[in-house]
Amino acid sequence: MGVRAQQKEKTRRALVDAAFNQLSAERSFSSLSLREVAREANIAPTSFYRHFKDMNELGLTMVDEGGLALRQMMRKGRQRAEAGGSVIRISVETFMEVLESNPNVFRILLHERSGTSAAFRAAVEREIEHFISELSHYVEDSAGRSPDLAREQAEALVILVFNAGAAALDMKRSDRKLLADRLVTQLRMVVKGAEALQQKRDNPELRARLSR
Amino acid sequence: MGVRAQQKEKTRRALVDAAFNQLSAERSFSSLSLREVAREANIAPTSFYRHFKDMNELGLTMVDEGGLALRQMMRKGRQRAEAGGSVIRISVETFMEVLESNPNVFRILLHERSGTSAAFRAAVEREIEHFISELSHYVEDSAGRSPDLAREQAEALVILVFNAGAAALDMKRSDRKLLADRLVTQLRMVVKGAEALQQKRDNPELRARLSR
DNA sequence: CATTTTGGCTTACACTTGTAAGCCCAATAT
DNA sequence: ATATTGGGCTTACAAGTGTAAGCCAAAATG
């Protein structure tokens, strides 16, 4: 890669990083101004346009990057789970760790999910869809769940996890531990419930007998 | 009430209504400026301060009002459910109707829940807590669930419903119908799962036998 | 080597924003 | 009847915003 392209990539990164760094509990992406980001990245405001058409384009880049990063981390966590132990428990733990070390990556997904730009919402939804889809296949394979039930189950699980993540962002570590426990309970509910619905479908007879 | 107090209340309402009316999929409360709201309410920008200290105060008012309105509507719906039929199904239907007729009331809760102001997040959380608490008691009483399990169950249910609500805002009616169906399935999962966990606690023995 | 491209810069402009200061006059209080 | 209060207004200002126009030097191209 030429010297020029290298430099360009470098300041592009500086912009993305600058934006990520300015995110916090009090500062959402949509409240960031182009000038602020440029300032933090140490470039002139108008130079911003050499890299992104506008703030929207930068934001979408961040959503994509963030979602990807999150998924990679979660996948690593799942490998750890394969070594043994409760899948649910370990996944929740991984998630909480990821959250703690990359709060801003999670923040942009969380916030823009209910944000003001349709493009953003769609982008976040796509990322979440990835999570759901991966998990759905896992559930189908490992628990022999029917495809559509697996889908609903996975969706419910992901929603609950995301939601807990949002709550966790506002907490100190001690409370997060408790939150994690409650989350695990809720996830178990969904899993148990999905099993029950599956059985009911597979064999209405048997289920009727068992519930007596 | 004196003529003066009456007038004051009237323009105060005009401000709140103006703000609610400006909300949309593309426009969140935090993106509204004081001047815009004043303009829409037909008063001078600086007159705003005769009623609210700043936009934050107006916003919190809206959250409280909105949450209250939502709860009242849902309670009416629950009465309808008492006439018979699936509680879950009827509640979901009510919710979807409420959503359709008052999208902006729901929007402000949804958006500010993950918003940028701690005060807002807390206010929304308080409103949601009301929902959870009401539902939790209902579950405890009607299904004989233990208090802590009831709480987790209610929380999961409310989260799933809220989440579906957010998705519904972006949909046309036909798709909402499908969404509602899937939501019902998920809610049933939670209910079934909570039952299972309850049984396991009440009588680990029996449950072991049944699952064979 | 000569030319073109490009990523940075500076300057400039038109807007919007929040809010301070202070006037006015009708409703209230004395 | 007179004095006070208070909800509206106008004017004004400093600050910040997005972005257009155009210059410059160094890298890339031929």
Give structural notes.
The structure is a homodimer of 212-residue chains. With 212 residues, chain A is mostly helical. The first copy, chain A, has 2 domains: 1-52, Homeodomain-like (Arc Repressor Mutant, subunit A, Orthogonal Bundle), CATH 1.10.10.60; 55-210, Tetracycline Repressor, domain 2 (Orthogonal Bundle), CATH 1.10.357. In chain A, 79% of the residues lie in helices and 0% in strands. Chain A contains 9 helices and no strands. The longest helix of chain A is centred in the last third of the chain and has 30 residues, at 173-202. The radius of gyration of chain A is 21 Å and the shape is elongated. The model of chain A has no long low-confidence stretch (mean pLDDT 93). The structure holds a DNA duplex (30 and 30 nucleotides). Chains A, B: It comes from Shewanella fodinae. Chains A, B: Residues 33-52 bind DNA. Chains A, B: This is TetR family transcriptional regulator. Chains A, B: Residues 10-70 form the HTH tetR-type domain. Chains A, B: Keywords: DNA-binding, Transcription, Transcription regulation.
As an assembly, this protein is homodimer
Tell me the CATH topology of the largest domain in chain A.
Answer: Tetracycline Repressor, domain 2
Alpha carbon gyration radius of chain A? 21 Å
Number of domains of chain A: 2
What's the pLDDT, averaged over the residues of chain A?
93
Report the top-level CATH class of the largest domain in chain A.
Answer: Mainly Alpha
- The H/E string of chain A reads HHHHHHHHH
Roughly how much helix do the residues of chain A carry, as a percent range? over 70%
Distance between the termini of chain A: 71 Å
CATH superfamily of the largest domain in chain A: Tetracycline Repressor, domain 2
Shape of chain A: elongated
| Helix count from the secondary structure assignment of chain A | 9
Sheet bearing the most strands of chain A, described?
Answer: none
Identify the CATH architecture of the largest domain in chain A. Answer: Orthogonal Bundle
Q: How many β-strand stretches of chain A? A: 0
Strand content of chain A: under 5%
Poorly predicted residue ranges of chain A:
none
